[in-house]
Amino acid sequence: MSKVTVVGSGVMGKGIAYAFAIGGYEVYVNDLNDDILANAKNDIDALLDGSFEKGFLKEDIYQNAKKNLVYETNLKVAAEDSSLVVEAVLEKMDLKIDIFKQLDEICSQETVLATNTSTMSPTEIGAQTSRPDKVVAMHFFNPVHKMKLIEVIRGLETSDETVDFIHETAEKINKKTVEVNEFPGFVTSRMNCLIGNEAMNLLMEGVASAKDIDNAMKLGLNHPMGPLKLADIVGLDTRLRNMEYLYETLGEKYRPCPLLIKYVKAGRLGKKSGSGFYEYNEEVKCGK
């Protein structure tokens, strides 16, 4: 059984850890302190319990997944001897680079280091390590336990061996992959950010309500979820960071909607805070 480490236990980190655990991997989840990890454990356990009770997981997979999850604040303990480390922290380049420099010191030279970034450059991240050939972007989608896709983005120096390893690993956890040439925002984030930003502009201009904008996209353009609801699930602070990066790298058409900036300043961060473009109940605020 291979060991995988997930650095960061936010929404994406928890989902990624869940996916690897039910895929049969030994999974170490790393974050800053025990309180954060205790909350992550509660949420992952609740997802495992719900999946088992609804019949989505067989009992042996459910029991093994719970046994295979380890929660560890010490990055060295969490990451040493791992075949793969997936970083899933905030979309801040300085933070990601700092983590990858630490991982480069801790991990074997055979370990593949992957970033779950939705917009940023694996080339830039990999260049700060001694193993740019082993650095790749492995972009999961939210909610990870439902979404089948992983975008695989190679950096300038990423080897074919590393890319093949990620494709094979994705298949083992029942995900599908698309391979993307590195460019800011890749494929899905560029498209999604544009659509979401325009939906926010429509709402700000009073063209239609959030509900009607989302229903128009679902019923008229066959989107499975409206762009405003999706932004709430992703987190409006995360979406704003993505937009700011794309605006900086790709130009004017990615300028963040003023309403998005206002909501983030007000602490309306979406589902995780209890309010965004929609209101959520107390149970949702607790991450259930």
Structure description:
The protein is an alpha/beta fold. It has two domains: 3-181, Rossmann fold (3-Layer(aba) Sandwich); 187-273, N-(1-d-carboxylethyl)-l-norvaline Dehydrogenase, domain 2 (Orthogonal Bundle), CATH 1.10.1040.10. Helix content is 50%, strand content 14%. It has 13 helices and eight strands. Helix 1 (11-22) crosses helix 2, helix 1 crosses helix 3 (59-68) and helix 2 (34-53) packs antiparallel against helix 3 (59-68). The longest helix is centred in the N-terminal third of the chain and has 20 residues, at 34-53.
* Approximate shape: globular
Beta-strand content:
5-15%
The helix content is: 40-55%
- The secondary structure category is alpha/beta
Average pLDDT, rounded to a whole number, is 94
Profile the largest sheet: 8 strands, mixed
Architecture of the largest domain in CATH?
3-Layer(aba) Sandwich
Number of helices: 13
Low-confidence stretches are 283-288
Q: What Rg do the Cα atoms give? A: 19 Å
Family: Belongs to the 3-hydroxyacyl-CoA dehydrogenase family.
Organism: Salicibibacter cibarius
Protein name: 3-hydroxyacyl-CoA dehydrogenase
Site (Important for catalytic activity): 139
Can you give keywords for this protein?
2 domains, Rossmann fold, single chain, disordered C terminus, 8-stranded mixed sheet, globular, alpha/beta, 8 strands, 3-hydroxyacyl-CoA dehydrogenase, 288 residues, N-(1-d-carboxylethyl)-l-norvaline Dehydrogenase, domain 2
